[in-house]
Design goal:
It is a single chain. By secondary structure, the protein is of the alpha/beta class. It folds into 2 domains: 4-30 and 296-404, Aspartate Aminotransferase, domain 1, CATH 3.90.1150; 39-293, Aspartate Aminotransferase, domain 2 (3-Layer(aba) Sandwich), CATH 3.40.640. Helices cover 41% and strands 17% of the residues. It has 14 helices and 17 strands. The protein has helices at residues 4-9, 36-49, 59-79, 93-108, 127-136, 153-159, 182-191, 211-214, 239-244, 279-295, 297-316, 343-352, 365-371, 387-404, and strands at residues 17-18, 21-22, 24-25, 87-90, 114-118, 139-143, 164-170, 195-199, 218-222, 233-237, 255-258, 263-265, 321-324, 333-338, 355-356, 358-360, 376-380. The strands form 5 sheets. The protein has a 7-stranded mixed beta sheet with strand order 4-10-9-8-7-5-6, with helices on both faces. A 4-stranded antiparallel beta sheet has the order 13-14-17-16, with helices on one face. Helix 3 packs across helix 10 (279-295), helix 4 (93-108) packs parallel to helix 5 (127-136) and helix 11 (297-316) packs parallel to helix 14 (387-404). The mean pLDDT is 97. The structure holds 4'-deoxy-4'-aminopyridoxal-5'-phosphate (PMP). 4'-deoxy-4'-aminopyridoxal-5'-phosphate binds at residues 29, 92-94, 122, 124-125, 170, 174, 199, 201-202, 222, 363.
Amino acid sequence: MLDIQKIRNDFPILNQEIYGKSLIYLDNGATTQKPNIVIDKINSFYYKFNSNIHRAVHYLSGKSTEEYEKARETVRKYLNAKSINEIIFTKGTTDAINLVAFSFGERFVERDDEILVCQTEHHSNIVPWQMLCERKSAKLKVIPVNDKSEIIFEEYEKLLTKKTKLVAIAHVSNAFGTVHPIKKITESAHKVGSYVLIDGAQGIQHIKTDVLDIGCDFYAFSGHKIYAETGIGVLYGKENLLEQMPPYQGGGDMIKTVSFRKTVYADLPLKFEAGTSNYVAAASLGEAMNYINSIGLENISKYETQLLKYAETQLSKIPNIKIIGTAKKKSSAISFLLKGIHHYDTGAILDKLGIAVRTGTHCAEPAMKQYGITGTVRASLSFYNTKEEIDALYRGLLRVVRMFS
Ligand code: PMP
């Protein structure tokens, strides 16, 4: 059992009033709040260690570099990756996916090859592949989902051919919370010789992620969605693939030697980390992962699953509610509409009650099109949320329904 009150005390932002009401933060899919330990890490970095990483001989730079590389090792362990060479620090999920689309695309994708994405992907896992397909005259194909928002596995397998170069799919859908069977998806893709990228932006903070067990070739995520600072993310990639891929950007840090005749690139992982990385945010990510480990991700997952079930049960009682995305396996997000009430209005009224939810397309326009809607209201949960907060959401929604009836 988690001591939620104790956990909530670790997150100072939660303890405040908005419009005279206690803040109820249910927008964790967009970004998570930060525990004291992470805020302290950032502060202490600037108070004590700050200096640009790598290369310099002086003490502070050594200390900064040590913190940065310590965070890389923490991420490696968290993902169960084989080597720190497989952990590339990026700006976030979007940056990590763009890195693969550019660099993997450059090396591996040719005319008429095919890239598969799922119908419900976030724009970050659609647009970079469209851009790649345009550059290379390759084709983007879409894995369909059923009306519960689960991928239709037989249809997926039919799309897999020798032409498939990459399957790019979310671990967890940000729009509807569906947990995709990424291990099975990876196994099928590998059978036809395709590579697999998992967009872990909504998976890493909720579900134990073991990249060796999943077998995926790439896994991308953002620090800010896992209780760390913004401006940092991770691309996990299998070392033999990363070795074959050209650098994404050129500049300092990603080189061994530079001359006007020839530049020799740095070894992994620095080959993909051109310029000054957000090393303070990287250290905050290491700290956030230590924090999660201290609570136990299994405990977090269990609690969040119970809370989601409770939210589904409570919200189902609201007259004329339609929950969108009713997959058997879901994590942490509940998307819905109230009949005849625009999602924006619902969100705006909830806001005045101190309840933060997100409304709109959730950067997944094709997913909305599939349901013939312009958006949803999404409550996305974290382990610092409580049943009492779900009850307040329930009462808030009843109030919205009454106001519009
Ligand atoms: N993929 C998914 C599934 C997401 O939920 C998000 C963020 N909403 C992203 C990608 C993009 O993440 P970021 O903006 O941190 O790069």
